Amino acid sequence: MAILGNIIKGIIEVTDKLKSETNPINAQHEVLKNLLEQAKDTEFGKYYNFSNILKSEDLMANFAKNIPYFDYNKMNSEWWYKLHKGKEDITWPGTPNYFALSSGTTGKKSKRIPVTEAMLEAIQQTGIKQVLALTNFNLPTNFFEKEIMMLGSSTELKEKNNHLEGEISGISASNIPFWFRPYYKPGKEIAEIDDWDTRVHKIAKNAKNWDIGALSGIPSWIELMLQEVINYHKVKNIHEIWPNLQVYTSGGVAFDSYEKSFNALLGKPITIIDTYLASEGFLAFQTRPETSAMQLITDTGIYFEFVPFKPEYIKEDGSLTENAEVKTLAEVELQQEYVLIISTVAGAWRYLIGDTIEFTDVERAEIKITGRTKFFLNVVGSQLSVNKMTDAVKELENYFKIKITEFTLSAKRINGEYNHVWYLGTENTKLNCEEIAEKLDEKLKKANKNYKVARSKALKRVLVTLIKPHVFHDWNDYNKKKGGQVKMERVMGEEKFALWEKFVKENEKE
């Protein structure tokens, strides 16, 4: 009998029953008030007169009226650069001990995002909330005695100018509570290995020594790790090595597009729980099994705002126009995509995180990630968002009975005319590309009226090239972006796409 498991599960269930239900709208008002109170004496707080905003009758409206939108470039060039010069009390009291190096799927170099002690505490509090929510998933008692494989970036952080730098997953793993360490795998020694391939090989070598009950990490890299373990031990699926694997907490991207290829590595179904941990904070997680949507964490140090995802509000570089309308949590609607804006205990203010979301349940504040603002393809009015692209790719998988693990595309000019050029990552590269392009085009026309209009006018053709999935991983490796929080660009500009196509020609192999 799993005595320890019974005790842990019992504590979780009792704690979950005792905690009171949070009203997301009321919680957000309190969070904003607390953020402004704590930061009112910082340079940022004084410049934008937080003290005066706190006196207003409509706190949220006054906040939105007086603080402009910021993306990373604007926030860093106007404010955060001062932190790197050793200054304190800039956008949050004191100075951060950590900076999260964002993998930068679209940027040319890593972003350095402040991670304060208050943010680390907020991430831990959200992690505890997620553990408490496990009681909703009816997991067996013995699950709570198993180990958890967390595949993030290296926990060997780099010291620079009196602070430490690393990806957020590495920072979080290096600060795990003492009581969790016995359950944490691959353990401190392996987790500190900086080279991703070496770290994964060590995991494969030691895999049989661990009783893994849960996995956590970005789907594409988790898949590669599982495949390495399977290949190393010459087994058919991961359950032959970890028979008690029951849960996978996905993160960073929507799991939908990876579902088919991920399931192919399993010997039996497991529970998939989506999470939303970004370099800027732990934003949401799935709280119940009836839906794959995630609940925004509205009471732990992050204030959310939502800009309707409309072409007229999005600049070419993915940032927002100054006049883009904004909604509070009390004002959002279903069936509308929004650009997510956050203000946090790490000193990010009205910050464009770069993701687009859609509400599936407004009362519960449940969302799904639909894409990235910079991955919005609107050349010649096609207005394609990532969720529309992903849905079409999933339909291709079902229609042609294949697995497509990655994809990217661009609007490319050929002989002066625009074409949508797609690269699909699949092992079945011998299929008819013209037939796939025709089916893809058909799916997108049905899903998006703007795309259908564009195809009848300025968008000439849809072209598809099938390549092996390893090319996408090699591309990330080539750009020094392998493992950790790294996500493949779904949409590229013409200049970068030219580099991508050159790389594909030089590196694709059977």
TrEMBL record:
Pfam family, one: GH3_M
GO molecular function: acid-amino acid ligase activity
Lineage: Bacteria, Pseudomonadati, Bacteroidota, Flavobacteriia, Flavobacteriales
Keywords carried by this UniProt record: Coiled coil
Domain GH3 C-terminal: start-end pairs: 390-495
Residue ranges of every copy of the GH3 middle domain listed in the record: 297-362
GO (cellular component) term, any one: cytoplasm
Protein known as: GH3 auxin-responsive promoter
TM ranges: none
Classification via InterPro entries: GH3, GH3_C, GH3_M
Coiled-coil spans in chain: 430-457
